[in-house]
Amino acid sequence: DGGITQSPKYLFRKEGQNVTLSCEQNLNHDAMYWYRQDPGQGLRLIYYSQIVNDFQKGDIAEGYSVSREKKESFPLTVTSAQKNPTAFYLCASSRGERGYTFGSGTRLTVV
Amino acid sequence: GENVEQHPSTLSVQEGDSAVIKCTYSDSASNYFPWYKQELGKGPQLIIDIRSNVGEKKDQRIAVTLNKTAKHFSLHITETQPEDSAVYFCAASGKWSGYSTLTFGKGTMLLVSP
User: Fold this and answer.
1) Chain segment A35-72, per-residue pLDDT in tens
2) What is the pLDDT of residues B49-80, one digit of tens each?
3) Contact B45 A102 (CB under 8 A)
4) CA distances from A51 to A30, A64, A73 (A)
5) Staple partner for B44: which of A76, B38, B71, B96, CB 3.0–4.6 Å?
6) Could you write out the three-class secondary structure of B2-66?
7) Taking CB atoms and an 8 Å limit, are A101 and B46 in contact across chains?
């Protein structure tokens, strides 16, 4: 079955550490997205990529970085510059005239 | 940019009742309006969507209506069941081609009591 896989499901980060969240899709979708979800805040766009080797900042890109070396993969790095990284992170992909397909999310906690 | 407002933030109904969630958008160029359902600890799932050339769309117990003039759209769930309990998000996008970004509302937590 085609789908979008995020890993790990839970991630703990120490102060000052960089961590990388994985997102892989086998749907042959061109576009991929990263959203951050906080209670009562909805989904806020961090980064998105429409094609390989190209990506754009979303509304809250500060403290995050991404790469898009392969069509199937769009990893997100949460850097030490992100002051409040504790949140639920969602990856999505899309192609054509249809809405997003979301992954099951990664819950990041600073310890 | 686009701004999407969603109301109410929480909604409690009895099983069998109807539930209505409303959203407004700011960008008159937006032409694609999906609705997502998110269960606890999971990613959102698309449940229904509508384009600006259509005023209403139904899928079994779920319907969405769009008023382009007023720039608002609504989700209607009839004969609610406990398994409908979840957080629902509306979203809007302009010039949707699969490569545009969606702007989401802040979500509505729906609780259906048996």
Assistant:
1) 999 987 889 999 999 999 999 999 899 999 999 999 99
2) 998 888 999 999 999 999 999 999 999 999 99
3) yes
4) 6, 19, 11
5) B38
6) CCEEEECCEEEEECCCCEEEEEEECCCCEEEEEEEEECCCCCCEEEEEEECCCCEEEECCEEEEE
7) yes
